[in-house]
Amino acid sequence: MQVVLRHVGDYIIRRCEYKDLIHVMEINMVALSEHYSEYFFEELFREFPEAFIVAEINGMIVGYIMCKVEYGFSNFKRLGFVKKGHVVSIAVLKEHRGKGLGTALMQEAINAMIARGCDEAYLEVRVSNEPAISVYENLKFIVKSRLRGYYRDGEDAYLMALDLHEQ
Ligand SMILES: CC(C)(COP(=O)(O)OP(=O)(O)OC[C@H]1O[C@@H](n2cnc3c(N)ncnc32)[C@H](O)[C@@H]1OP(=O)(O)O)[C@@H](O)C(=O)NCCC(=O)NCCS
Fold first, then answer.
1. Contact call for residues 141 and 160 (beta carbons, < 8 A)
2. The dihedral sign for the CA sequence 50, 107, 12, 64
3. Domain range spanning residue 141?
4. Cα dist. 59→11, 23, 35, 82, 105 in Å?
5. What is the mean pLDDT of residues 10-20?
6. Atom of ligand 1 nearest to the CA of 55
7. What total number of domains does the chain contain?
8. What pLDDT score was predicted for residue 125?
9. Closest CA to 126 of 50, 54, 34
10. Taking the complete model, does pTM exceed 0.85, yes or no?
């Protein structure tokens, strides 16, 4: 059954379904230089389906976000291990950017992380990726560290994090 989360203009933001995965992989191929195996997409879809979300218009998938639940050290000085929502990948097809879809996908993924009991969210982003950084900063993500040579081509990443207890 289709789970619609919200509408953004004529676009629908909804939970990803198994049949959408092929389109998600296609968007990943054209929009990002970090690609993954088919198995990896399926694994995230099985493990955290509430935070695997797509944007659709006229039956066409034009954007997605997929996340993982992890346990590890806090980015906000909490003691011990915390439960973290990791934004593994987010992308919107070029022709559909700047319409609020990236922000809506991220907001719904954050809602899913909170519902799962995550304490914090985090992600990595290329230091040169100004549009993405600005979307995350608008949602109150904070740059926590710079990861040297994080990407295969040698570019650094910012690790950005959001305290979900303050949402
Ligand atoms: C990051 C991405 C998902 C954002 O999707 P989107 O649907 O365009 O996002 P939104 O429409 O919600 O927000 C767009 C925001 O980008 C920012 N932006 C757009 N172009 C920008 C630029 N050249 N420089 C700085 N900020 C820019 C603006 O802040 C804009 O917000 P505003 O409309 O309130 O001013 C999209 O750009 C994308 O798919 N990029 C390629 C894949 C990628 O880099 N993914 C992130 C990997 S960490």
1. yes
2. negative
3. 4-166
4. 10, 11, 24, 38, 17
5. 98
6. 7
7. 1
8. 98
9. 34
10. yes
State how far the Cα of 76 lies from the Cα of 7, in Å rounded to an integer: 33
Query: So what's the pLDDT on residue 167?
Result: 86
Give yes or no for residue 131 CB within 6 A of ligand 1.
yes
- For ligand 1, whether the C-beta of 32 sits within 6 Å is yes
Is the distance from the beta carbon of residue 135 to the nearest atom of ligand 1 less than 6 Å?
yes
The distance from CA 140 to its chain's CA centroid, rounded to whole angstroms, is 14
CA 139 to chain centre: 12
Sign of CA dihedral 40, 6, 108, 99: positive
- Whichever domain contains 67, its CATH number is 3.40.630.30
**Hey, what are 5's tokens?**
């989360």
Condensed to tens digits (0 to 9), the pLDDT of residues 108-166 reads 999 999 999 999 999 999 999 999 999 999 999 999 999 999 999 999 999 999 999 99
Residue in 107, 134, 150 to alter for ligand 1 test, most ligand atoms within 8 A of Cβ? 134
Rounded CA-CA distance 46/156 in Å is: 30
User: pLDDT (tens digit, 9 = 90+) per residue, 39-97?
Assistant: 999 999 999 999 999 999 999 999 999 999 999 999 999 988 999 999 999 999 999 99
Nearest to 161 by CA among 91, 110, 101: 110
